[in-house]
Write a structure and sequence with these properties.
Low-confidence stretches of chain A: 1-12, 238-246
Helix content of chain A: 25-40%
Distance between the termini of chain A: 50 Å
Shape of chain A: elongated
Radius of gyration of chain A: 21 Å
Structural class of chain A: alpha+beta
Oligomer: homodimer
Order of helices and strands of chain A: HEEEEHEEHEHEHHEEH
DNA sequence: TATTTTTAGTGTCGAAATAACACTTATTTT
DNA sequence: AAAATAAGTGTTATTTCGACACTAAAAATA
């Protein structure tokens, strides 16, 4: 025990004159309900801003990386492991948290909303909000959400990340609604299916989804080999690239 | 004085149970010498890894934002203010610095090498290295450089950032060499000049650059209004997008 | 059981963008 | 005067993109 202590003391504070900072991660969690994009928010449980809407976040602990911290926090809220989670940006303004200077690294997650909506932890009073009806958020979380929206659009225009929002089996009309929702536009369905199918990323299944229409639409699933191979070179669905900012 | 002290004590440690971390920024500084891309490295002046090649970096101080810290550090080394500087990624593995856990936010800078090569601070024993001949670097700086290379390619394929590497007046052959260097490819010069001129971003000047050739090439400068207006919708020079990763 | 309603699914053609390709011009050097 | 060097420029074929309308399947309804 004394050994452990002295070891840790030895290891600590070698850069002894430097200031140490609070470090947090915040997660912008996107889901798709079949019609529009949503994000998951929580009611903050402690001061300051207790009771106000907030991104799910938390402090980075001593012995975890940022990626580990963001995964831990995502799991705390949703019970989910192993979903798409990508570092977005680190927000480091000195006064972004009024209590004490805190630097926060924002991550965005893309999850299949249906798979998890029932297993949300109740501890956080989480709710899904339409992306177009996000309430006022604490601190600079609004800015984080805006940055995440820009990033998801930018990236989805070039890479097939939106499949992460869909279940393993999905129909082409579902996929089209998703793209139209993300880019806030409409796409001709003949051109859409032509281009999507031309990527070689989709495998047509025998079964149909009967829920969405009378006739039923064929299910597809991702060809995972092609998915990884072609992740970099995907479609360019940008309707007007002027609206996209990294 | 007692008032200031008590104020700062009041403000400090409101999140009293949370671990505080060392925070650093590291800068990947790109330059272009007219033929190939280079990056600026320093000889690290303190332990650990004293004397080894490193990115220019430093700890984030109490009352500065990350953006301020990166600008400060860039200026310390190069004397430069107001150049292109963009946050790249935050590296947060727990053991990336063997002395003490340090989270580092990497920034990349694009500078006009000729304008500043003489005013480098001598304090850091900085040297420009060909991007293809970067020496072994400390910690995870190699990884940072790789990420910066990917980002600059990715972004330059869609946005006119490479002009930041050129002087205010440049020729089309110079610009072409720059693009060929960044994308490690060759481009037909007829197609290149057609597309570049079609953007409307360039203003042709009366004077010629006589240094590069016997005949001389016309100087151009950026049309700054169009530059900002068209920043989002630029050329797509990606030779094979497969090689690009965000 | 026939009709209506609803959404899925598919092909063509003109326009625009892209990629391939070679010669002339200006200037300096020899 | 001739040779060497790099700048500058146009055309054509190919590919990609965008616009556009009807038929098919199944359920609901009359």
């Amino acid at each position: 025990m004394p050994l452990t202590l002295s070891k840790s003391l030895l290891k600590m504070h070698k850069y002894s004159k430097q200031t140490r900072h609070l470090l947090a991660v915040d997660c912008i969690i996107f889901g798709f309900d079949g019609e529009t994009l949503k994000i998951l928010l929580i009611k903050r449980g402690f001061e300051p801003e207790k009771g106000n809407w907030s991104l799910m976040g938390g402090f980075v602990e001593q012995n975890e990386s940022l990626d580990q911290a963001s995964n831990r926090i995502l799991k705390q809220l949703t019970g989910i492991d192993g979903v798409y989670l990508e570092q977005l940006h680190t927000f480091g303004d000195t006064n972004r948290d009024p209590i004490e200077r805190t630097v926060s690294t924002a991550y965005f997650a893309l999850i299949d909303i249906h798979q998890y909506e029932t297993q949300l932890s109740n501890d956080y009073h989480a709710e899904w909000f339409l992306l177009k009806q996000v309430p006022k958020l604490i601190f600079d979380h609004q800015e984080m959400v805006e940055a995440a929206k820009r990033r998801i659009r930018y990236k989805a225009a070039l890479h097939p990340i939106l499949f992460e929002l869909l279940p393993a089996r999905f129909t082409i009309p579902q996929l089209q609604i998703l793209y139209e929702s993300v880019f806030n536009t409409t796409i001709d369905k003949r051109n859409f299916s032509k281009r999507v199918l031309a990527t070689g990323l989709l495998i047509k299944l025998a079964e149909k989804d009967k829920a969405g229409s009378k006739r039923g639409a064929y299910y597809y699933q991702l060809n995972m080999q092609n998915y990884y191979a072609k992740f970099q070179a995907f479609l360019n669905f940008i309707p007007n690239p002027d609206t996209l900012i990294l």
